[in-house]
Design goal:
By secondary structure, this protein is mainly alpha-helical. It is about 60% helix and about 5% strand. This is Fido domain-containing protein.
């Protein structure tokens, strides 16, 4: 059976690269805490934006797609789900809200992990809700010729309960002994390798990631969508999981690829948090100024719909007026037309 003794494993992960990232993230953590205390009201806007982005991104990764307007209405409970996909969206919404509001009171154990899975699927009637998998699941790839190959093989049905129980026990035994951020990421990798459910493993793993980060004091995922950053780099995400899975069953796997990836995700989240806070809290910035600064600091092109998504409290009219002024003054360049119109910063101050 797999050995989950994190106390014996974590020192091997303290490479110069990982240590450097840990130091940087902990510096960001301190700054973030001060900002949150100083601008609680102003940051509510970021919470709402991140919530929509997280629900959308994590479900997109599982090919669960809903139109943006419809998604926002579901997220804000302005409508009821009409089909199974929307039921899964609403379930993710509710679990995300539970984590944001009650993370300090959610223990890491078998029963609560099953409860999170049950809540994720509570709007669907299924015998698999809130229970571990009932059949062995194999993660496979299909090549261009249609041939399948096994990418990784999770633990068997018979070993699932004992594996999750051992995983949770090892996590608690390592608390206070192992760097909390490394412990959180190692736990998530092992959870993914166990793959305990028939369905929903990816979404549950990302929700648990937020839960563990919140409990460890890395609260940035409440204001910046961790799931969106992962979805935008999903090829590297899946590659990192696979590279850390190799020889997992033999207790010889290397956690470093997945740890490095997740640390980079957190660093990007904190950087994005700092940038957005500057726009929100600068007393000299009007709404039009915010649109200008977003385009100026955005890498590549950006669409009007993306600006609206990033600024839900700025009206369509204000955004359109800001774009028109920037075009008139030669600050931005318009690319394409109609619904495919994009904008890019044109000049340097």
């Amino acid at each position: 059976m797999r050995d989950y003794n994190y106390v014996e494993k974590w020192h091997k992960l303290l490479t110069p690269q990982i240590v450097k990232k840990l130091v940087l993230i902990n510096e960001y953590k301190g700054k973030c805490g001060i900002i949150i205390e100083s601008y609680k009201y102003e940051l509510n806007e970021l919470i709402e934006i991140a919530k929509v982005q997280s629900i959308e991104a994590s479900n997109i990764m599982e090919s669960i797609l809903v139109a943006k307007d419809r998604l926002k209405n579901l997220v804000h409970a302005k409508t009821m789900p009409r089909n199974s996909k929307e039921c899964e969206i609403v379930g993710y919404r509710d679990v995300l809200n539970i984590i944001h509001e009650n993370y300090d009171y959610i223990p890491i154990n078998v029963n609560y992990l099953l409860q999170l899975h049950r809540d994720l699927y509570k709007f669907l009637r299924s015998i698999d809700v809130g229970v571990f998998k009932t059949s062995d699941n194999i993660i496979s790839d299909t090549n261009e010729n249609g041939n399948e190959s096994v990418r990784f093989r999770p633990v068997s049905v018979l070993e699932t309960y004992s594996s999750i129980d051992a995983l949770c026990n090892a996590f608690h035994e390592a608390k206070g002994e192992v760097d909390p951020l490394l412990l959180d990421i190692m736990f998530i990798l092992d959870f993914l390798c166990i793959h305990p459910f028939n369905d929903g493993n990816g979404r549950i793993s990302r929700l648990i990631t937020l839960l563990l980060l919140h409990q460890s004091g890395f609260i940035v995922g409440k204001y910046i969508s961790i799931e969106k950053i992962i979805e935008e780099s999903k090829e590297n995400y899946y590659k990192a999981i696979y590279n850390s899975y190799i020889k997992w069953h033999e207790n010889k796997n290397d956690y470093k690829p997945f740890i490095n990836y997740m640390l980079d995700v957190l660093i990007n989240a904190y950087k994005e948090f700092e940038d957005k806070v500057k726009l929100l809290t600068n007393p000299h910035f009007s709404k039009t100024d915010r649109i200008r600064e977003i385009i100026k600091n955005h890498m590549g092109t950006i669409t009007k719909s993306e600006l609206m998504e990033m600024n839900p409290y700025i009206s369509d009219t204000t955004i359109q007026r800001a774009l028109a002024d920037l075009l008139k003054n030669g600050k931005i360049k318009k690319i394409g037309g109609g619904r495919y119109t994009k904008y890019v910063w044109k000049v340097k101050d």
